[in-house]
């Protein structure tokens, strides 16, 4: 996590999930012997899906980076990072899941090496890009989604129109709609995201037409409160927003993870792995 400001904004930077992890090596996630290039993904056998070797996928607005690795006889996992974090932010988690899990790390527009725009981004734009990328992967039509921070807003909007593709969803401390908290609004807009549009689109996607299991893991409130940079009122609003994610389906649960910080998949890796494995058929 990169701390870029002092005062109350510092923690909010973390909670929006902004800041980039190290650049990593694009395109290293493919599995040798995967069928073809250009996102053909490939079915090695009637029951085994293998990661595509392609990492750049064409969408209406530009090329989107999505890096896949591993193989599975079940359901692939789509990883959606927060802020401008890149695919390598998931490396430790992917290593823990092992090569018998097929994971694809979606890098949203505005986060390199995906395309950049001068105009503000919105969760709907990110969701539309995701919808264009998924069929190009060639690894099936249903997925388990793991979304961190602002990636949660994107998945929330995506699920409102594409619920049939969601076999399960794990939200990791997802960013709440930036309604009237000026600090949160400022930090969202610092990422060149339209805060008003983000809030409106999130509220419009308040439920999914699906019965897929949804799990929400949230940071430990004591982590935020003891820092002195997060007020009780802000924590209360965050808690309520986390419950809204769990209410997307009738099969949703939410819990605060003791000791967890915003990057739950780093501070509480084992619990996150267990939750993902529980969602996989």
Question: In words, what does this structure look like?
Answer:
It contains 10 helices and 11 strands. The protein is globular and about 50 Å long. The chain has 281 residues and is an alpha/beta fold. Residues 1-13 and 20-40 have low confidence and may be disordered.
Largest sheet: 8 strands, mixed
Gap from first CA to last CA: 33 Å
Strand elements, count: 11
Strand content: 15-25%
What proportion of the residues is helical, as a percent range?
25-40%
- Rg is 17 Å
Query: What would you call the shape?
Result: globular
Tally of helical runs: 10
- Give me the strand/helix succession: HEEEEEEHEHEHEHHEHHEHH
How confident overall, as mean pLDDT? 87
Give the structural class.
alpha/beta
Strand order of the largest sheet: 3-4-7-6-8-9-10-11
The low-confidence runs, each spanning 5 or more residues with pLDDT under 50, are 1-13, 20-40
What topology emerges from the helices and strands here?
Blueprint: H1 9-16, E1 43-45, E2 48-50, E3 56-58, E4 63-69, E5 71-72, E6 77-80, H2 91-97, E7 103-106, H3 123-137, E8 143-148, H4 150-162, E9 166-172, H5 182-190, H6 195-204, E10 214-218, H7 221-226, H8 232-246, E11 252-256, H9 264-267, H10 269-279
Parallel strand pairs: 6-7, 6-8, 8-9, 9-10, 10-11
Antiparallel strand pairs: 1-2, 2-5, 3-4, 4-7
